[in-house]
Design goal:
heterodimer; A: alpha/beta; 6-stranded mixed β-sheet; 10 strands; B: two-stranded antiparallel ribbon; 13 helices; 1% strand; globular
Chain lengths: 264, 326
């Protein structure tokens, strides 16, 4: 196997009763890549994320991360291994401040134990300060500095999407899964966001797997795209190949897949 | 070093108050003060489970009962012997009793914590109403066992517990439970608990071991409930199963909810309020419980998030020191 393959979904199937949400999916993501995963509503894209992050255990097949099988592990263990994610339907810790949201994700790298915290030992203070500094850096990068002490529930929608990304980065992932980060954003906002995602990939040297409905967005930044329909991979290739693939065009039901199209 | 001084000054102040208060307060007010302290320990410890972590436990009286009875049994059968042995060695009576009491309280707390661990386990699969029913069942099981075991007095109650708990120890327990809660709330571990309350799926996906933290909240919360039970036993000198009914659990929940889920200062305020109120209403005689209930209803309607919401009273701000956002 190619050592540069970070994630390998090895013929993964996820069956819910009579429904095959993901069927025999084989997908490789190379170290440092930014891969897009697209498909019509209900194609099984989010299920793929849930399989990678351990929310579901696949009915069949293996999920290989850095050469080791991770299927069946608990989600927090997989997060420790280096995979974090954002959620399509925004799942922030609503009653906490933005900074706390990021700090919670940094928790797994915290060395100070409960006793350190209760006794306020030097190790605890050092840990807290390091985590706070890093959290503030992440917030600054995502343009959220002025919101740091605001509760997540009170953030404008666009900022909530950004906070999801900041939070996922705080876990220091090697693989970042973004589930429709541009959903609900206007064209200018999603343009900014795409630039930001590219910047994040370079700056943190993180591999990104991106689910997106907005074709324009995916075509703009992903070198490689996989298309799902009814749980099956119907196409994989460069944006150019995907755009002209008859199966893809059919899956999107005759909808145009132009260079600058709208929402699917 | 600085912390040692603070600790020494605090302990000195408590010891001083312990000597002074009974001179200024009549026994009736002294009793209310002690019960307030025990209520605070109960409410703040339940706040760790229900408020911080968002689990719904209505079995807190059960943990309290375990702490009360196990510490009382220790003191009556072993602790008393220790005290006379220590006194024979020349230790002052107060010190000998204090030593035995500390051991009794810790044992009670540990027994309750072990129970908390086993009750916490179902919380991994159950949440909300379902977990509530499990903890309710647990509380009732404890009460029924106590009512039927002759060695702990059964339905007659358990008299003759040495009366070792005084203001000093109740205040020390209050400081301990509030201190531990505050430290946890301002640490990574506390943030993990709050994350579980807000969104368990997201917390797990971001690397929070939700299993561990949910059980941990139960263990710490029930440990302090056990301590509160031990203080109650050694203050009252008499225990009866009727002190640990389902209604007692509800009373503690009322304190946490009325104070504002997750707010430590809210739990303290509400614990004092709900302990003092029934006494203050004694003059209303038969209308007493009606007014008590009405006041709770009105408070919850006017402040649905509880007295404090999820905020804290930041004492540090009063002293002009750095204040962290709640």
């Amino acid at each position: 196997m190619n050592p540069d393959v970070l994630l390998h979904l090895d013929h993964v199937t996820m069956q819910f009763g009579g429904l095959k949400a993901v069927a025999n999916l084989d997908l490789e993501v190379g170290r440092g890549e930014l891969v897009g995963l697209i498909g019509p509503n209900g194609a099984g894209k989010t299920t793929v994320f849930n399989l990678i992050t351990g929310v579901y255990t696949p009915t069949n097949g293996r999920v290989m991360f850095e050469g080791r099988a991770i299927q069946g592990m608990k989600p927090h263990v997989i997060a420790h291994r280096g995979i974090t994610r954002t959620f399509q339907n925004i799942r922030l810790f609503a009653s906490r401040t933005c900074r706390d949201n990021v700090l919670i994700a940094a928790h797994q790298h915290c060395e100070a134990g409960l006793l350190d915290a209760v006794l306020a030992t030097a190790r605890f203070e050092r840990d807290e300060q390091a985590m706070r500094k890093r959290a503030d850096e992440l917030l600054a990068l995502l343009g959220l500095s002025e919101w740091a002490d605001v509760r997540a529930a009170e953030l404008p929608y666009g900022q909530q999407r950004r906070l999801e990304i900041a939070r996922a980065l705080a876990g220091r992932p090697r693989l970042l899964l973004l589930d429709e980060p541009a959903a609900g954003l206007n064209p200018q906002e999603s343009d900014q966001l795409m630039h930001l995602i590219e910047e994040i990939r370079r700056k943190f040297e993180v591999t990104i797997l991106l689910i997106e409905h907005d074709m324009r967005v995916v075509m703009g930044i992903c070198r490689r795209i996989a298309v799902l329909d009814y749980g099956e991979k119907i196409a994989e290739g460069t944006p150019g190949q995907i755009r002209s693939d008859p199966k893809v065009i059919e899956a999107y039901l005759g909808e145009e897949v132009p260079a600058a199209g709208g929402n699917a | 070093m600085k912390r040692l001084i603070v600790a020494a000054v605090t302990l000195g102040a408590l010891a001083g108050l312990d000597l002074l208060l009974p001179r200024f307060l009549n026994p009736y007010f002294m009793r209310i003060l002690m019960l307030c302290g025990i209520s605070i320990v109960l409410a703040v410890s339940l706040n760790l489970i229900n408020g911080f972590t968002g689990q719904f436990s209505i079995g807190h009286a059960g943990f309290m009962a375990i702490g009360a009875y196990s510490s009382a049994m220790f003191s009556m059968h072993i602790g008393v012997g220790w005290v006379s042995a220590l006194e024979a060695l020349g230790a002052p009576q107060g010190l000998a009793q204090a030593a035995a009491l500390v051991v009794a309280l810790l044992l009670g707390g540990l027994a309750a914590a072990v129970a908390g661990y086993f009750v916490g386990l179902p919380s991994l699969r159950l949440r909300g109403d379902y977990l509530a029913i499990v903890t309710l069942g647990f509380g009732e099981i404890i009460r029924v066992i106590i009512t039927n075991v002759d060695a702990v007095g059964a339905a007659r109650g358990l008299p003759g517990i040495p009366q070792w708990a005084n203001f000093f120890w109740v205040a020390a327990a209050v400081i301990a439970v509030v201190g531990v809660s505050l430290r946890i709330a301002n640490s990574s571990h506390g943030r993990a608990l709050f994350a579980i309350r807000d969104d368990e799926v997201a917390a797990e996906a971001l690397g929070v071991d939700t299993t561990r933290y949910k059980v941990l909240a139960f263990v710490i919360g029930s440990f302090f409930a056990g301590i509160a039970g031990g203080l109650f036993a050694h203050y009252n000198a008499y225990l009866h199963p009727n002190s640990f009914t389902f209604l007692k659990s509800i009373e503690i929940i009322a304190m946490v909810v009325l104070g504002g889920l997750g707010s430590i200062s809210g739990s303290i305020l509400a614990a004092v309020f709900l302990t003092v109120l029934p006494e203050a209403l004694r003059s209303a005689q038969e209308l007493r419980m009606v007014i008590y209930s009405l006041m709770i209803i009105v408070l919850m309607i006017t402040r649905p998030g509880g007295l404090m919401g999820s905020r804290e009273i930041d004492v540090r701000r009063w002293f002009g020191r750095r204040a962290r956002p709640a």
